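The step that takes the researchers longest sounds almost clerical: writing a folded protein down as plain text. Below is the pair of lines this work produces for a single protein:

——
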Amino acid sequence: MSEQIDPLGKVTEDKDLLGKIRNFLGGFLGYVDRDRRREADKLLRETIAQRYEELWERISGLQRDLIQTKNLEYVDDLDRAAIKLRGFIDRVKGASYGFAGLFDHVRIQSEELEKLYQFDVSMLENVERVSHAIDNVGASLE
């Protein structure tokens, strides 16, 4: 392999395009790492939305049960909870995944992506709390 000195004064070997880009851009590996975090964030948010969607369906089921048994006293309360949960689900589904392109002027730093990821994890952990609350409501209506 022949070695060449590129315009930035770095020694490069005949490599594929990706290897050459890595040599030209010192932060390229950081960009790849951030890109992986963005993808992980996207997958996590999709999972969060799915889990909360399941909880919304449980609330809707409780509403149907109340209506079928003509126990309409708490339908409005459950409806308000279902509407708030639906709004939350829609926001999670439509949320940005921390993406900024390689040449964008505004970049999201790795630390910010890590905080975003931790926030997403906390939302996933709250699924269990909401699930228990729905269990309690269901048990009290029996």
Notes: The radius of gyration is 24 Å. Strands lie at 3-5, 11-13.
